[in-house]
Amino acid sequence: MKVCGHCSLHNSAAKNYCDRCGAPLAPGSAPTARPHSAASPASDLVLPRTESAHSALSARAESSAADLRRRDRRQNLYFLLALLALAAGGGAVYLDRHDPAREVLAVAGQYLDALSRQDLPAAYGLLTTAAQAHCPEADFRTGREGAAWTWSDARIVRLESDAATVKYLLRVPGQPPREDFLAFQREGGRWRRPHNGQMLQKAQDALDRSNPDLALILAQEAVRIDPRDPAARAFLCEAVYSRGIAAETERQCLQALDLSARQPSQLSAKSLRNIRAILGDTYKNSLHKYPEALAQYDAMLASPEGAAAGRCEALLASADTRLALGRDSEAGQDLRAAAGCCAKPADLDFIRQRQARLPSGR
Q: Which of 8, 31, 57, 360 has a CA-to-CA distance to 302 between 20 and 30 Å?
């Protein structure tokens, strides 16, 4: 046997090269193997030189690869952070430029500037498609040319995803400044003015001419142009009432009151009293919902304006409703209060007739 001096493998005597490591074996007598060290029991596992070199190269290559991977991770992290910063900056700029409040105020300024400098075509171009369809530019010009006025202090008082209301201060020469309101709608990604003033004026004219059918059609179109407009709902409430449609009168009048409570508008206190009077009369005489009718009359009498305007009519209606509910004592109080503010002979006759029905005669 020949023992390899490099890897200690026992080879046959005829071998000239080691079967394991390929090292040359001395011819003739077999070389002796290197003795095992008692202090190194793992010496039998020592790899030949060629495998040791390969392991060293592999270790260095793996270390270099790990370094490259760490470097790539750092570079990727830096790139990601830079990308996030860029995106955040770009998003802030986009949000600033496309902030709905800023957009609404910008369009409101354009609209008011155009009107105040008599550039009516420019103002007309800011109307919604529905508004332009129901209001030709010639009608839009009516009553606007030649009037001098200025505006200031525009601010948003109501903002939704697709609708907004802007309040501003209107100054007309010779008149004290007053607050006014403008409604806007989002249409095709832009804010536009749902102008329905001409439709409302035509509806009022139709009511004045006792033409409820035409008033109803015009009021419906005004609501389609701006469904959130309390004034348009108020006209529709009155037009439906003129047609004698009780259930629809209730629905439209309640919507008008709800919108007026949630959204600023140009509805006057007189208009609100009129809505409640219509609703109360519908409840009392058509739907026979006496508690609901009484709630409307109480609201009319509780309002600051109710102390004077329309007080007589509200008290008479309230007294009649309380009598229908069997609340005679309260009805008597209303009749006594009405006797102190009503002046028309017909109203005074009504008071005497109702007092005669009370158990006490009063």
A: 360
Q: Please tell me the pTM assigned to this model.
A: 0.70
d(CA 100, CA 190): 10
- Amino acid symbol at 183: A
Q: Report yes or no: 253 and 275 within 8 Å, Cβ to Cβ.
A: yes
Write out the H or E segment, with its range, that includes residue 191: strand 190-192
Segment 128-157, tens digit of pLDDT: 999 999 999 999 998 787 778 999 999 999
Rounded to a whole number of angstroms, the CA Rg of the chain reads 46
Q: Are 200 and 231 in contact (CB under 8 A)?
A: yes
Which tokens sit at 241?
A: 């009432």
Please give the backbone phi and psi of residue 197, each rounded to the nearest 5 degrees, phi first: -60, -45
Q: Rounded to the nearest 5°, which phi and psi values hold at 164?
A: -155, 155
Yes or no: say if 221 and 191 are a contact pair by the CB < 8 Å rule: no
Provide CB contacts within 8 A for 186, sequence distance 6+: 161, 162, 163, 192
Say how far apart CA 315 and CA 301 lie, in whole Å. Answer: 8
**Sign, CA torsion 108/109/114/118:** positive
168 touches 153 (CB < 8 A): yes
CA dihedral 92, 95, 101, 104 (to 10 degrees): 140
- At 23-72, the pLDDT tens digits run 777 665 444 444 444 444 433 444 445 755 556 656 666 677 677 777 77
Decide: 241 and 249 in contact? Cβ < 8 Å: yes
CA end-to-end span of the chain: 145
243 neighbors 216 (Cβ within 8 angstroms): yes
SS (H, E, C) 251-262: HHHHHHHHHHHH
Q: Environment class of residue 6 by beta-carbon count within 10 Å: exposed (0-12), middle (13-18) or buried (19+)?
A: middle
**Helix, strand, coil percentages in the chain from 3-state DSSP, rounded to 5:** 60, 10, 30
- The neighbouring-strand residues paired with 178 are 170
Separation of alpha carbons 21 and 1, rounded Å: 16
